[in-house]
TrEMBL record:
The keyword Transmembrane applies. The chain crosses the membrane at residues 6-31. Keywords: Membrane, Oxidoreductase, Transmembrane, Transmembrane helix. GO terms for molecular function: oxidoreductase activity. CDD domains: retinol-DH_like_SDR_c_like. The keyword Hydrolase does not apply. PANTHER family: PHOSPHATIDYLINOSITOL-GLYCAN BIOSYNTHESIS CLASS F PROTEIN, PHOSPHATIDYLINOSITOL-GLYCAN BIOSYNTHESIS CLASS F PROTEIN-RELATED. This is SFRICE_041424. Pfam families: adh_short.
């Protein structure tokens, strides 16, 4: 009797596992057909000699490939991230593949406002300009927790931290006009549904809550891009983007079962490599045709549709005011 119960229990688990895989496969397949029928490629040949570019999270994944491409075009590239050892490996790789030795590392932990303020102070004292700021670093799928600043970890790393960093570097961007701010968001912003009053708080501990928390952070990135486009001088291009479905380690902290399913589907559906995922980022950094484009959302190196609420000017302003309050 007990063996039979165990048998049927295992059978049910197997059926559920198969159903989850099939449903996820179907959803991702629909996405690939609808949103990524062709992988966009940056076609600009623009050089960046004499320019200074800052890439957060430039030691791995999309950030590394973005830093590599900007360095290949002649820019001085600053990689801002945690972990000096991994950053050193990334710099060695970039120098070897581009021949550009003007690639540097500066420590930055977006989960700590004290680190962001120290980074900004050091950068502003070291460099006289900032031509391109790529807010790329992010995280997802982590166990909900508060930072030392008493802010939800994912919201701080993905949104509040970059918000503060950009604010502290704004004078350099203005002094370097025409300059650019690029914000890596996600198509998952469509699932975001934010409460401005509790924007910095943990929304829950379930897997579903983790998903919506990540989506909310990316929706905030979109609203932030809109606000910056209104508040900054016209010579500063600021836009957000979805890099596509990319094989990176951003979701490595998901439960092992879900991570294995996700990685399996990445292989089956031929998800983008980090280099392919960086194409829209690079496009917004260098393409002449987007220098005067502001507050837009891109995917596959083209303007794309976004959640309608992003155009709500009242919401844009309320989120901005809350962000200023949280980061002050």
């Amino acid at each position: 009797m007990i063996l039979a119960a165990i048998y049927y229990l295992l059978l049910i688990v197997l059926y559920l596992y198969t159903a989850l895989c099939l449903l996820t496969l179907l959803g991702l397949l629909c996405y690939k057909i609808g949103f990524e029928p062709v992988k966009g490629v940056c076609k600009s040949n623009a050089r960046l000699d004499g320019k200074i570019a800052l890439v957060t999270g430039g030691n791995q994944g999309i950030g590394l490939e973005t830093a590599r491409e900007l360095a290949a075009r002649g820019a001085t590239v600053i990689i801002a991230c945690r972990g000096a050892e991994k950053a050193a490996e990334a710099i060695q790789d970039i120098v070897a593949t581009t021949g550009n030795k003007q690639v540097e590392y500066m420590p930055l932990d977006l989960s700590r406002f004290s680190s962001i303020r120290q980074f900004a102070a050091d950068f502003n004292n070291t460099y006289d300009r900032l031509d391109i700021l790529v807010n790329n670093a992010g995280c997802g799928g982590v166990t909900p927790k508060y930072t030392e600043d008493e802010i939800d970890f994912v919201m701080q790393v993905n949104y509040f931290g970059p918000f503060l960093l950009t604010k502290l570097l704004t004078e350099k961007l203005i002094a370097s006009k025409p300059s650019r701010i690029v914000i890596v968001s996600s198509i998952l912003h469509f699932f975001g549904n934010i409460n401005v009053d509790t924007l910095d708080k943990i929304v829950g501990h379930s897997i579903k809550s983790k998903f919506y928390n990540y989506s909310n952070s990316k929706l905030c990135d979109m609203l932030w891009a809109k606000a910056l486009a209104k508040k900054l001088p016209e010579d500063i291009s600021v836009n957000s983007l979805h890099p596509g479905l990319v094989r990176t380690n951003i979701f490595n902290k998901l439960p092992s079962f879900f991570l294995k399913v996700f990685m399996f589907l990445c292989d089956v559906l031929n998800f983008k490599t980090p280099k392919e995922g960086a194409q829209t980022v690079v496009h917004l950094c260098v393409a002449d045709e987007v220098q005067n484009v502001r507050g837009k959302y891109f995917s596959e190196c083209c303007e794309a549709k976004y959640k309608q609420v992003v155009d709500d000017e009242d919401l844009v302003e309320r989120v901005w005011n809350k962000s200023v309050e949280v980061t002050s």
